[in-house]
Amino acid sequence: MTERIFINAISATGDRINLSVSNGVITDICSELPEHMPREIIDLQQRLVIPAFVDGHIHLDKSFVGDRWRPHRPAGSLRERMAIEKAELADARPVVERAHALIRQAASYGTLAMRSHVDVDATTGLNHLHAVMEAREKWRDLVDIELVAFPQAGVISCPGTADILEAALQDGADVIGGIDPTTLDTAAEEQLDIVFGLADKYGVKVDIHLHEPDLQGIDQLQRIAQRTQALGLGGRVAVSHAYSLGDVSAHTLEGIARTLADASVSIMTNAPGDRDFPPVLKLREAGVNVFAGNDNIRDAWWPYGNGDMLQRAMLIAYRSGFNTDEELNVAFEMVTQAAARVVGLDGYALQPGHPATFLVIDAPNVAAAVAEGTTRREIVRQGQFWTPGQQPSGDSQVLPS
After folding, report:
1. What is the pLDDT of residue 390?
2. Closest of 35, 107, 56 to residue 357, by C-alpha
3. Residue in 53, 55, 43, 104 with CA at minimum distance from that of residue 293
4. Half-sphere exposure of 159 (CA within 13 A, CB side)
5. pLDDT score of 400 more than 80
6. At 166, which helix (H) or strand (E)?
7. Nearest alpha carbon to residue 205 among 133, 115, 290
8. Which residues pair with 150 in a beta bridge?
9. Residue 299 has what DSSP assignment?
10. What is the pLDDT of residue 394?
11. Would the N or C end of the chain have less CB density within 10 A of its end CB?
12. How confident is the model at residue 274 (pLDDT cuts 50, 70, 90)?
């Protein structure tokens, strides 16, 4: 029996709909009201109803959200940047507290699933991973969090990291990471042997940070695609950033896009403000799944970000020159369905039989919501309105701020 009905909602396609809910599950979506109305009727007053956001790339262990403001410190190299980060984090509040604060903030904007990269290397060990796992457990009833064992310091250039990566997978990390196999490790084949070897051994997904430029980055993407196909990992491998896709000629882009699509390798971009990035529409035209994430949020790498994926969609659209409704809808898909495919969410869609978990937004349609980027929204979780001050499990306890 229907317990409640949300009436006068607007779907992503602009249609007026009503959503019937029972036991936290959508039982019906239709334009007409049912003959027998339930006792509880919630009028959404012609506001937009959409699936919750999915952040496909975030770093919960690095952020200073929940800590004091820290002025950005310039660095002359990647290694110098990593040294600054370690010094800053050593003086910050515990990882678990900062992870709590960032999850809470992201959830308050409507992000109810995310993939978090967590530093795992021979110097950090598994400390960050265990702390983020603790934070994840507190939020498991509201936010789905997939964890990547991320070798920030390199796999080969930081001796002992390969063993720590394996230990991370044994302890429950969901995805094996990698980073710049040539420019950071100077050993592309050796790093990829380890990363894909562990993925094959433990049956986990792969997500590799790739900042390498121009044709060097394209060569790396070729290697990743070949290994993906060889191990039958199509749909389970992502490359984050892949800046080189924005560096090369149209002819080169066309070829590598075909290769990535054939191998079912996904590409993540956050549309960084300081350089070219993958051309979203060209990759999608070739059949590549392109998704989005916030990446670093207010940490030692840059001072920007608040965890709002709608704002991230707006930034991607703005930097990509998206103006039409169709293009703005692409940016929206990158922070919803495209990211959900990578994370592997079950029941992610507004349709009967799926959880009644969705966002209610003050916007006439998806394109308008993306263009504005900061519009007000409410969260419905399993048919009930949820606010950030509530304990995710539903009781009255309040999580640490």
Report:
1. 58
2. 107
3. 55
4. 0
5. no
6. helix 161-170
7. 115
8. 119
9. S
10. 37
11. N
12. confident
- Cα–Cα–Cα angle for 319, 321, 325, nearest 5°? 120
Provide the token pair at 155.
């796999």
DSSP string over 176-234 = EEEE-TTTTTS-HHHHHHHHHHHHHHHT-EEEEEE---HHHHHHHHHHHHHHHHHTT-T
211 pLDDT more than 60: yes
- In the Cβ-directed half-sphere of 270, how many Cα atoms lie within 13 Å? 25
**Tokens read off for 384:** 């009930």
Alpha carbon 53 to chain centroid distance? 9
Q: What span, in angstroms and rounded, lies between the C-alpha atoms of 323 and 345?
A: 30
Cβ partners under 8 Å of residue 381, min gap 6: 112, 142, 357
CB 220 within 8 A of CB 185: no
Give yes or no for residue 203 having a pLDDT over 70: yes
- Amino acid symbol at 362: D
pLDDT at residue 362, rounded to an integer: 94
180-189 core/surface letters (b: 16 or more CB in 10 A; e: else): bbbbbbebbe
- Cβ neighbour number for residue 27 with a 10 Å cutoff: 17
Q: Which of 224-234 are b and which e, b meaning 16 or more Cβ less than 10 Å from the residue's Cβ? A: bbebbbeeebe
Could you tell me the strand order of the sheet in which 175-179 lies?
53-58, 111-119, 144-150, 175-179, 205-210, 237-241, 265-269, 290-292
Q: What digits encode the pLDDT tens for the residues 286-324? A: 999 999 999 999 999 999 999 999 999 999 999 999 999
> What residue has token string 């009503």?
18
pTM: 0.94
**Beta pairing partners, 384:** 381
Burial 284-302 (b: 16+ CB within 10 A, else e): bebebbbbbbbbbbbbbbe
Distances (CA, A) of 171 to 163, 232, 242: 12, 24, 29
Angle at 190 between CA 187 and CA 196, to 5 degrees: 130
